[in-house]
Amino acid sequence: MFFVRVLVFIVGLWAVLWTLTSAIRTVVLSRSAVSLLTRVVFASSRKIFDLLAHDRRDYEDRDRVMAMYAPVSLVLLPAAWLTLVSLGYMAMFWATGGFSLSEAFAVSGSSLLTLGFVPVESLGERLLAFSEAVLGLGLLALLITFLPSMYSAFSRRESAVALLEVRAGSPPSAVEMLERVTAIGWLDQLPTVWERWENWFTDVEESHTSYPALTFFRSPQPDRSWVVAAGTVLDAAALTLSTLDVAPQPQAQLCIRSGFIALRRIATFFGIRFDPDPSPDDPISVTREEFDSACQRLSEAGVPVLADRDQAWKDWSGLRVNYDSVLLALAELTIAPYAPWTSDRSTPSHRPPKVRRWGRG
Asked: Are residues 45 and 188 in the same domain?
């Protein structure tokens, strides 16, 4: 019996330490790190929310359901931490030999919640009780300090996404963005736009790999999405470099590189596979007919477009191939709203709404 109690004590201690490590990796560690417990909580919650949203044909209804996914999962996470810690200490209290299973459960819960309604007598039991109380308060404090940092990153992300609606419509599109910039005479101001979005991509990469839950936090408006915004800006920068008859813009090249690196890092965290070194002539999801139609629309709007459409297509598709697959995969993962050249070509499980409205916002 002695060896059984020793083994149970070790298992309980391991459960507590494993839970604490998971919390540190999720909240404290300032780098991309996978926690099995966090992944299980979010994956299990996602299955439930997918079922709730599955039969809702209207996108706004699905968006309303999925908007609760990340917040609910974050609430479940500390509940999972505290449950495992309580069970771990329950095992250790029982292993000391002074409590039955029901008594060990009661003293563990009393210590974890700092209620103190179950007395403990020996020095070892008191040390266990004190350590459990400190750990329980510490886990809650971690989450409390974690939320302001995460919502600060969310606010920075969404301010740029909201501003994009002014420049690129709703839902946003790269073609409409370039049309509007041309219409107001700001075509020569695009380099400053690319610089701002280069910084935005860098910030998103850091925040969404350090705090992966941010990936699933949805915009305040159902027709906005950070994934769609990323795709719109990347496509607009690629069109500027490949298709527009304007002065060279190295800022656009840096924006594109910053963008596909950010999307790839986030995709890597979620186990999304992609070709890290694609060939410029690899196939992409946008067809030549769609590209030609976009060029025609730009030309009719007075945007200076190069005459050599074959070379423009070759150059644009050679840029798009760097982020095409990860962009669509992230749109699928986040159930992004439908927008041209991003989530409008996702897999069958991401079904279109009853009516697609591509009108200009």
From this structure: no
In a shared domain, residues 214 and 329: yes
Q: Looking at the predicted structure, is the pLDDT value of residue 347 above 70?
A: no
Does 224 share its domain with 275? yes
By residue count, the chain amounts to: 361
Structural domain includes residue 199: yes
In the numeric block, the tokens 């839950």 are attached to 213
Kindly state the tokens that stand for 274. Answer: 């992609």
> Model confidence over 15-43: pLDDT tens digits?
999 999 888 888 877 666 778 888 899 99
Look at residue 72 and tell me whether its pLDDT is greater than 90.
yes
- Helix axis angle for 250-269 and 324-334, nearest 10°, is 50
| 133 vs 137: CA distance, rounded Å | 6
Name residue, tokens 């002695």.
2
Instruction: Tell whether 139 and 173 lie within a shared domain.
Output: no
Least confident of 162-166, 187-191, 237-241, 356-360: 356-360
Please tell me the pTM assigned to this model: 0.85
What is the C-alpha separation between 194 and 191, in angstroms, rounded?
5
Residue 68 has pLDDT above 60, yes or no: yes
Taking residues 144-159, what's their average pLDDT? Answer: 88
H-only helix segments in 117-168: 123-168
Cα dihedral 343, 217, 222, 47 sign: positive
For every residue of 201-258, DSSP letters joined together read HHHHHHHHHHSGGGGGPPPSSTT--HHHHHHHHHHHHHHHHHTB-S---HHHHHHHHH
Residue 358 lies in a domain: no
Packed helices 123-168 and 190-210: angle between N→C axes, nearest 10 degrees: 160
> Within the chain, what is the greatest distance between any pair of CA atoms?
87
Give the three-state DSSP class for 305: strand
Domain that holds residue 325: 169-345
**Listed residue (317, 215, 230, 305) closest to 267, CA to CA:** 215
